[in-house]
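Technical note accompanying the year-one report. For the benefit of new consortium partners, we illustrate the data format agreed upon in the data management plan: each record pairs a sequence with a structure-token string. No post-processing was applied to the example shown here.
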Amino acid sequence: PGSKGGPITAWTVTTRGPNGPEGVDSSPSTENGVVYFGVGWVGTRGVGGYEAVNPNGSRKWFQIAENPLSDPTPDAGVGAGLTIGILQSQTAVVGPSLGQNTYLFNAAGGARLAGFPWYQADTNFSTAAVADVEGNGQNQIIEGGNTSAGIGYGTTYVDGGQIRILRETGNTGGKANSGLYCDYQTDQGIDSSPAVGNIFSGKPGIVVGTSTERPDLATTDDLIAIDNSCHKMWETTLDGATTSSPALADVLGNGQLQAVEGTEGGYVYALNASNGSVYWKTKVAGEVVGGVVTVDLGTGYQDVIVPSTSGAFILDGRTGAIVKTLEDTVGLQNSPLVTHDPNNTIGITIAGYSGAGPASHAVMEHFEVAGSNGSDVNEAGAWPEFHHDAQLSGNANVPTADNLAITTKSLPSGTVGVP
């Protein structure tokens, strides 16, 4: 990579909460210049909501994340990203909350759509994916989540987590938690965000990590793949927690998708997405908390950009060898953003922190790869940002109802946001 780009400020906005400005853990999504994100974080679970901001920085709409009336805490924060897709025949945004509900809104005006809020039963950090995994001409919502032992709306829940496929109509015509196409239960929570792709003989599959909320359980440190009927296809234990979100990318250059995952143990893995076997693993400095992204840097296959609490590293996609230390003084807990820059080069943006305690401060840097071809950012097999694309579809190549959510779109150079 070449020199770092200078700071460009397009606009700033003060986030909104029920009781005033609140922090943001959510990764933003964008469509037609509008930016969507969740407000609130785990430290303030009782406040927050869903927000949309216009291209000029003015607020488009805001909706409070409410809990069921039976919950002693009336409102909840939103830590997951808001995924954009065609749902119920309109452009909509969907996102779980840190409370007990998942919401679906009309993207243009913020109106709640029929069948939502949907009762998710417990805290959810998992950004949803959108794809037609049923193959019925309608998109479904794919997400992880946590569950706690108890009975809710006639359903008995156990301590653990769920990987679930929810129909776009939510709970319409049924109980608050009805409308699931299928789900797969784990003994550990699912904080990771699912990646969806045609990985099982050309048919859709879902790959996702777990959490660390219940230590020493069977699925802790595991990467799990299920098919489009929620049957487990494989489960592989890695060296460290798999809370970060996997990518499905063609790192081998063989025209197929591989699963790439970073762990809190500081390892990065490339796995066969059809059976979970490991192609390579590489140790990097720090913990890998944010999801990896990929880009073809002229090799004909996807190289892997790894964010860690000790910097950012570029790994060779075929071998896993570290080919470049992009940054070693900035800590990262999110995903880099790869863009096709105006000068036709590949840009890489990172946002993190430097220092500790009172001396800690936010850092945002943009790099350009000298001699690169920016059009490679959008090629087949790429995973250039968190959850694949600007809509946060989490969808590598599964057809959608209108193809909106799987179009890889890069934020234009100069757009300010947290990648």
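Partners are asked to follow this layout when depositing records. DSSP finds no helices and 31 strands in the chain.
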